[in-house]
């Protein structure tokens, strides 16, 4: 048995205090409603195994994943009744898992409602479509007999463009209220992160922030309220000196204008550091900016070490990854920046 594992060359530093502070801020901002947490996609790439216990400690008691296998991976970390699966039951096996574990399915269609009831039913959530046309029971199906058999805890709908004041928020809110008047339920939920900023009319009993928990700013209303949660950090694999006129990386897109000291670091496409960061990304070592030179070259990136003459092989650098700014620089969405973080990071 091997006892000494090799040392990782890539880390995702998680600021647990910032995560908890973001949840508490969103919970307060949700007013009379409680804030839950969307922890699908491995808590947006941050690492659900770390995020769920930290959020529970902060007081969160409602968690949402997309897939059933995500739920199965989390049931030991919480009371399964705190967890709901947004995709809903696609098979009888999903229903059996839900009934045995206590995890709630979010019913999205009459078909899913029938399947759930045929397997014995019990507490579930219901998603009503108010304009997204992605998942959810249509407004026109709300009077259907089938739904009356359901024992609905949370009646959900989901906003199309909550971050955009000019979006169809008000129309969706009215439809959601209408749905609430038709289908008996315990709690009502509409707002994702952006929806929380739309005010009390959008809060219902429970909000479902995801992005903002992890440091995302859906719009300027979040500036100054939400803290950065994760920082990708990579080890320097090699330091080299290059002469003026030499090129760096695949396709030679950077040519050194002068003699330079450069460092090759262990981060690349598989880690979510995509080609859009080529010649744009910045890493730092004690605040000093170390810009990316040329292309991201598969598993590696070369950075300019001029600002950090003492930096050596084995040292660590941090990516500039504050989400609103990183989205601007890279052209990726804040969601892509988080969920794309690969499996090689030590989390
Ligand atoms: C992912 C998701 C959320 C969280 O959305 P954010 O924009 O990340 O806050 C909320 N509700 C539903 C139904 C979701 O699928």
TrEMBL record:
Alphabetical list of Gene3D superfamilies matching this protein: Alanine racemase, Lyase, Ornithine Decarboxylase, Chain A, domain 1
Catalytic activity: L-alanine = D-alanine
Matching SUPFAM superfamilies: Alanine racemase C-terminal domain-like (SSF50621), PLP-binding barrel (SSF51419)
Matching PANTHER family: ALANINE RACEMASE, ALANINE RACEMASE, CATABOLIC-RELATED
Record has S-adenosyl-L-methionine as a keyword: no
Name recorded for this polypeptide: alanine racemase
GO biological process, one term: D-alanine biosynthetic process
Pfam families with a match to the protein in the record: Ala_racemase_C, Ala_racemase_N
Binding site for substrate: 134, 298
GO CC terms: cytosol
Domain Alanine racemase C-terminal intervals: 229-347
Keywords: Isomerase, Pyridoxal phosphate
Top enzyme class: isomerase
Entry-annotated residues carrying N6-(pyridoxal phosphate)lysine: 40
Source organism superkingdom: Bacteria
Cofactor: pyridoxal 5'-phosphate
GO molecular function: alanine racemase activity; pyridoxal phosphate binding
């Amino acid at each position: 048995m091997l006892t000494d594992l090799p040392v990782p060359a890539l880390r995702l530093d998680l600021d647990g205090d910032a995560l908890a502070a973001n949840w508490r801020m969103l919970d307060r901002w949700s007013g009379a409603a409680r804030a839950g947490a969307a922890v699908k996609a491995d808590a947006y790439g941050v690492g659900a195994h770390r995020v769920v216990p930290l959020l529970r400690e902060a007081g969160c008691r409602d968690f949402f994943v997309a897939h059933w296998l995500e739920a199965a991976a989390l049931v030991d970390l919480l009371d399964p009744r705190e967890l709901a699966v947004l995709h809903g039951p696609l098979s009888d096996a999903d229903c059996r898992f839900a009934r045995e574990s206590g995890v709630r399915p979010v019913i999205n269609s009459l078909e899913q409602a029938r399947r759930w009831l045929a397997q014995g039913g019990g507490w579930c959530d219901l998603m009503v479509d108010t304009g997204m046309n992605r998942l959810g029971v249509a407004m026109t199906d709300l009077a259907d007999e089938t739904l009356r058999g359901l024992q609905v805890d949370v009646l959900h709908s989901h906003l199309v463009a909550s971050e955009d004041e000019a979006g169809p928020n008000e129309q969706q809110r009215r439809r959601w209220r209408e749905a609430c008047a038709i289908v008996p339920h315990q709690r009502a939920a509409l707002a994702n992160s952006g929806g929380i900023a739309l005010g009390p009319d959008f809060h219902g009993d429970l909000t479902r922030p995801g992005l903002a928990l992890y440091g995302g700013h859906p719009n300027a209303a979040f500036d100054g309220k939400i803290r950065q949660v994760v920082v990708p950090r990579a080890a320097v694999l090699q330091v080299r000196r290059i002469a003026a006129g030499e090129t760096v990386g695949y396709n030679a897109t950077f040519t050194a204008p002068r003699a330079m000291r450069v460092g090759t670091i262990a981060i690349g496409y598989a880690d979510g550091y995509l080609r859009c960061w080529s010649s744009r990304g910045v890493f730092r070592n004690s605040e000093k900016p170390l810009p990316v030179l040329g292309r991201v070259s598969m598993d590696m990136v070369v950075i300019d070490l001029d600002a950090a003459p003492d930096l050596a092989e084995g040292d660590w650098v941090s990516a500039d990854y504050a989400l609103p700014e990183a989205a601007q620089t890279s052209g990726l969405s804040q969601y892509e920046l988080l969920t794309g973080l690969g499996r090689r990071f030590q989390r």
